[in-house]
Design brief:
- By secondary structure, the chain is mainly alpha-helical.
- It is built from six helices and two strands; from the N terminus they run H-E-E-H-H-H-H-H.
- The longest helix has 38 residues, at 72-109.
- The radius of gyration is 22 Å and the shape is elongated.
- The N and C termini lie far apart (50 Å).
């Protein structure tokens, strides 16, 4: 018989300081490790796990078919999460492109010292030169 994994167990495992901690899922499935969660968990820009994902992960871990949620509602939420992540990445890339163009323009204009540009951007001078040159 397989053990049902709860959101509370997942949260507990995530917060567990013991790196070898696991959630036992019974005889038919491998235990869930912290490394497994690191792959499954979506985080915000500061690296904190998103609050609404714990139930979704529990659904995935309890599914009979690996990688498939146990309910249609879960599937819709996963699709929404994927779509939101794609949109977030698109917006971030667009903002980064605009920011980098502004940095390049400021450096090329030679009206402001690179050190002042770096300070305003809260970046190193080396990073400003990388942006100017289109590197990374």
């Amino acid at each position: 018989m397989n053990a049902i994994v709860t959101a509370e167990q997942i949260i507990g495992l995530w917060k567990e300081p013991n790196l070898s901690a696991v959630i036992d899922r019974g005889d038919d499935f491998e235990p869930v490790t912290k490394d497994d969660l690191a792959v499954l968990i979506e985080t915000d820009d500061e690296g904190r796990p998103l609050d609404d994902q714990w139930e979704i992960i529990a659904d995935q871990l309890n599914s009979v078919v690996p990688g498939e949620p146990t309910s249609t509602a879960g599937h819709n939420v996963l699709a929404e999460i994927r779509d939101a992540r794609i949109e977030r990445d698109r917006v971030k890339k667009e903002a980064d492109d605009e920011f980098n163009a502004l940095i390049r323009e400021a450096v090329v204009s030679k009206k402001t010292p690179v050190a002042a540009i770096a300070d305003a951007a809260q970046m190193s001078r080396a990073r400003i030169y990388q942006i100017r040159d289109g590197r990374r």
